[in-house]
Amino acid sequence: MIALMSQCTVTGQTLHTRSNRALKYYDQGKRDYDLLYYDRAERNLKLAVGEDSRFYEAHILLGQLYTDTGDWENAVIHYRTAVAIDPLFFPPALFSLGRAEMRTGRYTEALNHLESYLKQLGSTAKLRAEAEKMIGNCRFALSFPGSLFDVEPVNAGDSVNTALDEYWPSVTGDGQQLIFTREVKRATAYGQDFGRDRQEDFYVSNWTDKGYWGLARSAGAPLNTAGNEGAQSISSDGRYMYFTACDRSDGHGRCDIYFSSYDGSRWSPGINLGSPVNTAYWESQPSISPNGKMLFFVSNRPGGLGGMDIWYSTLCSDGRWSRPVNPGKEINTSGDEFSPFIYFDSKTLYFSSNGRESFGGHDIYVTTMNRDSTWAEPQNLGPPVNTPADETGLVIESSGKRAWFSSVHTKENGKDIFYLDLPASAQPEPVLYFKGNVIDKASGQPIKARYELTDLTNRVEVISSVTDNRGGFFVCLPQGSSYGLNVTANGYMIFSENFDFAAGYTSAEPYMKTIALNRVREGEFMRMYNVFYDTDSWELHESSKPELEQLLEFLQVNPTVVIEVGGHTDADGTDEHNQLLSERRANSVREFLVKRGIAHDRIFVHGYGEGEPVADNLTAAGKRLNRRTEITILSEGTHKK
Predict the structure, then answer these.
(1) Own/partner pairs, 43-47, CB within 8 angstroms, 24+ separation
(2) Backbone angles phi, psi at 348, to 5 degrees
(3) Is the CA virtual torsion 343, 349, 355, 357 positive or negative?
């Protein structure tokens, strides 16, 4: 705030009015303003300029009041009037006018007034630095075509939005569920907010077959409480939530990050993540990566670069969160960073900042994590995503085409949820999704199973988790890679498959598969499609390790089972060569298991060469299916060493 009144003598002789009535209204309005009674101050100051339209100080104070309340349009009106009355009486008025014009998108006018301000004598170093930053922002904004600012966001509709405030939208990976925060009337006093009559709760809306969002309903107790819950992040399958809650009895600081899970009928009570994620400082606005292994959030804890910084923590093998890392100046600035959102590819991060080149206030930026965990230089998303107003809390659907956010378009409706179809230049790479359903092959009943997906192209684990109670699972997968899938359940054979997401699937037509598991019994077999060797070699490829670990665990939890490892090849090469190659490959698997503690007499090997194809040997796809390792149960009885 510019301390105007400390620089001007507040006597009737020096003020720009000769109207006693105007002066009376002005004095009362100034007292109201000093006490933060903005509504009364506005009424009295308007009466003052009504009595004397050239009352300079009343216009200046109205401009400051509207600046404080974020009403930039009215701030422009009154600052312009004051500058027109006396352009040089109070040079900081040029600064204030330029700032208000920038925040309303009048970049050319703002540039002129800010440059005029810098030419005046007596300006403070702080205001000069801010003016120079705003001049840079104006020139940055003017470098974009004006037509981009004309794109209008679309209201999510009456089934989602009400006269209350709705904000912080989250969308599941399949785009079928929208979860958001709504400010509702509080029934009882709560914690330090006992004086407020509003509280924040979660609401859920589902996409209908009729092509619109269904009526949003409260997520209900025990997730929603009499306190504030908000700023949530939903896992891509909609089964987990990380959120912010404040003033709770188990809190480490004023606001902490909590966790909840959905069992198919209701959300569990929020569990405080505890140390080291939560501290005595302020932690909020979490964003969980699609594989559940990285948690981004905002905090003002020591060790940051500005007031609010973005931090992240990784999930350890023991289920604990690591000590949070501040990515430093690659993301954070001396200003404030808010609302991180990690996209469905687990590497593209969106966030809001007021410490970088912008269109006026907080803008949305995007950066990408490199393979070495460093970050690319953040880029401003530009219009129509960014405007002269503050942009925070933006999330993007898995298709990469649509962004969701909250905004105030009318004072009567307050904050509402909106969406915006992104221009191609602002769209991230789309991700695809895989829906699986695990059943017992004999009965058709769902099985709660463990599933693991590995990116075979980049040799990294994508996710390792369990199905829901109905045997279902959902995973978002970046396009352009091959993936290995393993599904295991106690008492069942391992399911193994690999597939490409290079082409042929879209987010609108996901990869869907029912996985039928066979029970462990004599004569049953399983094909291990994710055991790989280099061409014409029997040395196990590094990318085979996840599947072999699954086989090892299978033998450990079924300690009486005796197996045959069968090696199979395609038809390239001679019969004799393929026979020997298949035997050596089967032996490589046996050696791996024996070295890891499985008794050698539980594992027999057999090379089948090219003699038992399961597909043609004319196409690459057929040959790939024929090159396989098969595990057959020879005996499930008691094993004697």
Answers:
(1) 47/22
(2) -100, 120
(3) negative
Residue holding tokens 């939560």? 278
Q: Is 14 exposed, middle or buried (0-12, 13-18, 19+ CB in 10 A)?
A: exposed
Token pair recorded at residue 314: 């990784």
Q: H or E stretch including 522?
A: none
pLDDT in tens, 285-329: 999 998 899 999 999 999 999 899 999 999 998 889 999 999 999
Please give the DSSP secondary-structure letter assigned to residue 550: H
Give me the sheet containing 294-299, strands edge to edge: 283-288, 294-299, 309-314
Token digits for 274? 């505890």
Tell me if 488 sits within 8 A of 515, measured CB to CB.
no
Contact 296, 287 (CB under 8 A): yes
Residue 578 is encoded by which pair of tokens? Answer: 């393929």
4-147 CATH pick, 1.25.40.10, 3.40.50.2000, 3.40.50.150, 3.30.110.40? 1.25.40.10
Looking at domain 521-641, its CATH superfamily turns out to be: OmpA-like domain (3.30.1330.60)
Residue with the two structure tokens 């295991």? 488
**Residues 416, 156: contact at Cβ < 8 Å?**
yes
Instruction: Give the closest residue to 522 by CA, choosing from 600, 602, 641, 637.
Output: 637
Task: Give CATH superfamily name and number for 169-426.
Answer: TolB, C-terminal domain (2.120.10.30)
**Residue 66 · residue 75 · CB < 8 Å:** yes
pLDDT digits (tens, 9 = 90+) for 422-440: 888 888 888 888 889 999 9
| pLDDT tens-place string over residues 488-543 | 999 999 998 888 776 555 555 678 889 999 999 999 999 988 898 887 889 998 88
Q: Residue 462's pLDDT band (boundaries 50, 70, 90)?
A: confident
* DSSP character string of 147-186: GGGGPPPEE--TTT--SS-EEEEEE-TTS-EEEEEEEEE-
CATH code: domain 430-519 is 2.60.40.10
CA-CA distance, 97 to 102, in Å (whole number)?
A: 9
Read off the DSSP letter of residue 583: H
Q: Kindly calculate the radius of gyration of the chain based on its CA atoms and give it in whole angstroms.
A: 32
How far is the first Cα of the chain from the last one, in angstroms, to the nearest whole number?
83
Which tokens in the block code for residue 584? 């050596």
The C-alpha angle with vertex 94 and arms to 91 and 99, in degrees rounded to 5, equals 140
Q: What is the pLDDT of residue 507?
A: 56
Which residues lie below 8 Å from residue 586, measured CB to CB, with a gap of 6+? 565, 566, 567, 605, 606, 607, 629
